Request: fold
Amino acid sequence: MVETSREVGNSRSSEAVVLAAAEDVFVRRGYDGARMQEIADVAGINKAMLHYYFRSKERLFQEVFRSILDRILPPLVEALGSELPLGVKIRHFVDGYIDALDSSPALPSFILSELNRDRSSFDAFIRDKASAMPPVLQRQIDEAVSSGRIRPIGAEELVTVLLSLCIFPYVARPLLEPLCGMDEEAFRVFLAGRKSFITSFAFSALRPGA
Amino acid sequence: MVETSREVGNSRSSEAVVLAAAEDVFVRRGYDGARMQEIADVAGINKAMLHYYFRSKERLFQEVFRSILDRILPPLVEALGSELPLGVKIRHFVDGYIDALDSSPALPSFILSELNRDRSSFDAFIRDKASAMPPVLQRQIDEAVSSGRIRPIGAEELVTVLLSLCIFPYVARPLLEPLCGMDEEAFRVFLAGRKSFITSFAFSALRPGA
DNA sequence: GTCTATATAGGGATAGAC
DNA sequence: GTCTATCCCTATATAGAC
Reply:
C-alpha cells in the first residue's frame, strides 16, 4: 500500500501474481516440464519480467516450492502435535487434511515428485518445522496405551498411516481408478467416503484386544 | 540366438541393453528431465543409434513405461485376485510387495509422477489387466463378513489401504524422514519393520467387534 | 519497470559416409 | 548397423531502448 511512485503493476502485488502463476504452471508440469513463457503468459506479463523479478527459473522455483511447504507443513505439524486428546486429534486431522486435499488434489503428487527429484535441498527446511511434533504425539500414545485405550504403536507409524491413507488416493488416482474398475464418477464417490472410512478404519485398528 | 548375420551387437540383445539404460535414466530423471545423450552413454552406444532403434524419445519412453507396467501389474493383480484364503492372501501380498519395493525403491515415485503427467494414455492399458481382480476379492470379503470373521469393507477400500500402506513410505520418504525426525539409519529400520506392522495393523482393523 | 530483440546453449532428430 | 557431423528448434537468459 505504501508505494513510492505511480508505477502501475509493480513489486508486492505483481510479485504475488507471478508467484501464483508460477505455482500453477509448476504444479501442472513439474519443474522440468514447466516453461518460463507459459508462466509469463499465465501471469499476464512479459517473459523478460520474470527474469527481472526472479533471476532464474531455479530461483523462482525455490520461492514457489518453499512457499508451498510453508503453507502446507505448519497446519499439518500443528494438527498432529497439538495437545488435543488423541481421538479428537485424529478426527480433526483427517477431516481438515482431506478438505485441504480436495481443494488442491494435484499438489501432493507435485510435492512428492519434486522432493524425490532433489531431496537434499529441503530436508533441513522440513526438519526445522517438525521437531516438536513427534515427542508430543508419542507421549499421548504412551498415555493412551497405559490406560488401555489403544494398543501400542509408534508415533512415526501413526503419522505414516494417517498420511498414507489420506494422501495416497490423490497421488495414485491414475492407477487406482482403472485398477479397481472405477469410472470418474465412482472415484468421486469413493473419495467422498474417505473421511469416514479412514477414521473408522484407524480407530478400529487402534482399539485394544486380541 | 537365430541371428541372420555376423553383426556384433544388434537387435534383440542391444535393444534389451538400451531399454535397461533408458529405464534407469527415465526413472532417475523423469521423462522431461531425461536426456537422450545420457541414455546413450549408460547404454554404451551412440546417440544416433537410439533414434535408429526407437524413432523418438516419446516412443522409447512408451516402450519403457509399458514394459514396467507389464512387469509390475500382473503379479499385483494375480496376488490380490487369487483364490487363496483372504488372510493368507493379504500376508502373501504384503510380503511379496514390500520385497519388490525394496529392490526398486525409486520405481513407485516415477510411475505415479508420470501417470499424473499424462493420465489418459495408460488408463485402458491398466484397466485391461485388472478386470478380474475386484470381483474375486469382493466375493471373498463378503464370505468372510457373512461368517463373522471380518467386518465389512469394500474391495476398493481394501486394495487402497494395502497399496497405500506399502507404497507410501517409499514415495514420501523425503517428507516422512525429516517430518518424523528420523535419520537415514532410523528410516532403514522403520522400513524393515513395515511388513509385520502393515499386516498386524490391517488384521487388527479388519477383526470384527465393537 | 516494461518492452523488443537477441545472444547462447542444449537437446531431439536426421543426413550421409562407412 | 554404426559412426560423425550437423540441422533446427526451443528455452533460458540478457542487452538495451524507452
In short: Residues 1-9 of chain B have pLDDT under 50 and may be disordered.
